[in-house]
Amino acid sequence: MNNLTTKQKILEASIRLFNWNDVANVRLQQIADETGISVGNLAYHFKNKEAIVSAVYENLFEEFSQILSTYLTSPKLTDFDVQMEQYHRFFSKYKFYLIDLFEIERSYPVIMERWRECIGKMLLQIRKRLDYYVNRGILQPEPAPGVYDTLTNSIWTTIVFWVPQQVLKDKPVDETVFKQTAWAHISPYFTPKGLSEFALEVQPFILS
Amino acid sequence: MKRAFSMPPELYAKMLDELSNLFFTEKLGLDSDMNFYRNDFWLTDTAVIDMLLLRKGAWEINLLFAHHKTPLKFLSRRITSHSCPKRARIMAFYMRRLAAKDQRGTLSLDINDLNLTLN
């Protein structure tokens, strides 16, 4: 933490405050207090709150792109497990994304547009991953047209909204439960080969 | 906020398809795939051309072996290097004579065999 630059410290403090309150309710004074600097110093680094919000989202999109870039780095099922782990870390860090979804849409249309683009890519990746698993013979061919589109949406909903619903229920945001919930959508469609690969390579990994 | 690079969803989907295909199309090579490199008997029937290239401050002697019937079948090999250009030139001359099948250099290439199109 001590090695962070003042700019990074401000952004970290802003993320913490956005998670506790929400973007609209956080004032510059609070950010300055949380960072441990004066408002004047804060204004030196970011001219207004809009600049801070933009910088926070810039970081957020950068991290999200990093996760997207890990798509299919290995042909194994563990590849998706690793990506899920990253999604969990991401959505736990940026809990405010859901609280502020509608506020962002109204006040920051550019951010909302980029957010939609990222979500679109994420959905496409999940759908293509299912196709890939079918080609590899570890997932059954689509039982009826559209089934895997629905499955994609279910997996996506779990990945994106699992953390906020746990917070809402005042339950721990446990990574193991998160991954088990996401895999639970796919596992009924595994072929025997897929089941054995899952049992051998993914399950021990989840539990560890 | 700066505008990020973006691509149409259809193109992104196509890209992901290609990425998935890599795991089916990209296979480990066989040992026999490198035979063309090991079985270099054809080098005996080649015209040899010496080349001097200045690389990292030294004159590198390269010999270019081109088949006298099908000149597009050629291979370039680095032999040695010298810091003195004169010595490198002499060395290249003798290297070429040593490597060529006919030491007088009668085995030559015909430019027409290359079927060059100048468009």
Oligomerization category of the chains in this entry: heterodimer
Beta-strand segment tally of chain B: 3
Helical amount of chain A:
over 70%
The 3D shape of chain B can be described as: elongated
Biggest interface and residues each = A-B, 21 and 14 residues
Number of H- or I-type helical stretches of chain A:
11
Name of the CATH homologous superfamily of the largest domain in chain A: Tetracycline Repressor, domain 2
Overall pLDDT of chain B, averaged? Answer: 83
Overall geometric form of chain A: elongated
Q: Which structural category do the helix and sheet elements of chain B fall into?
A: alpha+beta
Strand neighbour order, sheet with most strands of chain B: 1-2-3
How much beta of chain B, percentage-wise? 15-25%
CATH architecture of the largest domain in chain A: Orthogonal Bundle
Instruction: Give the integer mean of the pLDDT values of chain A.
Output: 90
**Cα-atom Rg of chain B, whole angstroms?**
23 Å
Question: What features would you highlight for this structure?
Answer:
heterodimer, A: Arc Repressor Mutant, subunit A, Tetracycline Repressor, domain 2, 2 domains, B: 119 residues, alpha+beta, three-stranded antiparallel beta sheet, 3 strands, 30% helix
What does this protein structure show overall?
- The complex is a heterodimer of chains A (208) and B (119).
- Chain A has 11 helices and no strands.
- Chain A has helices spanning 6-20, 28-35, 39-45, 49-68, 78-93, 96-99, 101-107, 109-136, 147-168, 175-186, 192-207.
- The model of chain A has no long low-confidence stretch (mean pLDDT 90).
- Chain A is mainly alpha-helical and 208 residues long.
- Chain A folds into 2 domains: 1-47, Arc Repressor Mutant, subunit A, CATH 1.10.10; 54-207, Tetracycline Repressor, domain 2, CATH 1.10.357.
- In chain A, helix 1 crosses helix 2, helix 5 packs parallel to helix 9 (147-168) and helix 8 (109-136) packs across helix 9 (147-168).
- Chain B is 30% helix and 24% strand.
- Chain B is elongated, with a radius of gyration of 23 Å.
- Chain B is built from 3 helices and 3 strands, in the order H-H-E-E-E-H.
- The model of chain B has no long low-confidence stretch (mean pLDDT 83).
- Chain B starts with 8 loop residues before the first helix and ends in a 20-residue tail after the last helix.
- Chain B is an alpha+beta fold and 119 residues long.
- Chain B has a 3-stranded antiparallel sheet with strand order 1-2-3, covered by helices on one side.
- The chains are: A mainly alpha (208), B alpha+beta (119).
- Chain A binds chain B through residues 54, 57-58, 61, 71-72, 75, 110-111, 114, 117, 120-121, 124-125, 128-129, 131-132, 135-136, and chain B through 1-4, 6, 9, 12-13, 16-17, 19-20, 23-24.
